[in-house]
Design a protein that fits this description.
about 170 residues; mainly alpha; about 75% helix
Amino acid sequence: MNKTEANLEHWVFRSRWLLAPFFIGLLLAIVALLIKFVKQLATLALSMFTLQDDEMIVAILTLVDSALIAALLLIIGFSGYENFVSKIGTGEHEDRPAWMGRVGFSDLKIKLMGAIVAISAVELLKAFINVEDFTWQTLSWKVGIHITFVVSGVLFAVTDRITDRGNH
């Protein structure tokens, strides 16, 4: 039984590598997002002299939205890989992000919620700038969803804080 148990534990431990393609896929999604970002930036550059102020702001907010999503994908890809698969061996490389290797699962949840709230806020701001394009019902849904994200983020943070106090 002891050898069977050791063998099983060995395979369970090695199964963490099944997650690696997911994290690599997230990093590849950044490439797709980059292509979309460059297309949006080129469109903005070509039409910046003909756009109204509110159209320019919405276009810029769309770029900000893309950057936030790309950063979120990078954080999830790096942190998830390091937390669940293997440490990334960059040593003390000068360009190594300060958060890398220090973001645990709890921190990752908080960062994820923070990014979702920021993305939702950008989308809400874009809707308010183009308020005439939306019904009050649609705007109400957008505000309600944003408030739900904000409250969820606060509850995640409070729960983590309570859990952290219980561990110390």
